[in-house]
Homoserine dehydrogenase (Candidatus Cryosericum septentrionale), 361 residues
Amino acid sequence: MKTAPTTHVIQLGYGKVGAPLVHLAIENRARIERETGVHMQYAAVVRSSSVALGDDLALRAADRGASFDEWTQRAPGMTLDVLDPIFDRFGLPDATRYVLVDVTATAETGPLLLEALGMGIPVVTANKIPLAETPGWFEQARAASQQASTPFRYECTVGGSLPVISTLVDLMTTGDTIQRIVALPSSSLSCILGGFNRGLPLDAAIADAMRRGFAEPNPLTDLAGRDALRKIVILAKTMGLPTSIGDVDQEPLLDQDYPDFDAFQGNGMARLAARLTAARQPGMVTYYVGSTSADGTVTLGLRSFAQASVWGTLEPSENIFLFSTSRFGDLPVVVRGIGGGPILTASGVLADIIKAAQRQI
């Protein structure tokens, strides 16, 4: 039997998605090779100021058996020289297969990802910030990917493990016209507002989202709606719209900036609860929903829907994306499910790595 060529994974980031990603990739390596022909090994896991070189240390780190003291310290930053010791050990990109994976949450990795695409290294990213917030970055990445015929996959920036970007791209590639996308893209806000729709007090709904791992330790990060905003911008850009963060007609959830969650609790919590109650009429559910239309209109804000509609059937933390197209007419294409959370997001990133590697075989 012919031995599959090795794809060396370079992973940027080792947080709540990065750690389970390493474990999933190595734990399922034999199955992946058997079913897809992709033989995958870790070349490196890169943190902000240290690096773990080689498959063995990556595995032990994922199993919590390697302390960060064992990692090689390096100068802080995510510049191109991060790759030098990796290339020295495993070979240059023209002779070695690599996939560069970004599971950080910083704009700092953006230039490195563009450099990698230009060198012919496939890029997989779950990092929304360069795509949504760095002017021109998304367009540069797509152009570099096309010019070098190199995969650039960013499925997990919007739907986590759900096939949102691939559905959108497939519809457009096969000649359909996207008229409008309506989406509940934030798992954390789905969990909070879904619990509130079901009768939980707002503070209890927030606490439940935190307990289940959908909300950040500081829930104001979620309530600010920045995550949902970035996802709607990425959807609009994928549609081909020249949308930036500032172009979105956003209705904020919070009535003001709060220095911390303690400052929000009390009057801030009560005001938001009253606003949500007023928005939710009898027989309705209310969610924080984004939409992007072919005419360039992009919005994000509270919307109410009939309890008897598909929106009334959503479980707390579930996402939904409805694609209205010319070909499908009055019935939109629907992608729904729980796509967020560390394990599900990591599994979605792993699927993107496999697809990027298959393009190299």
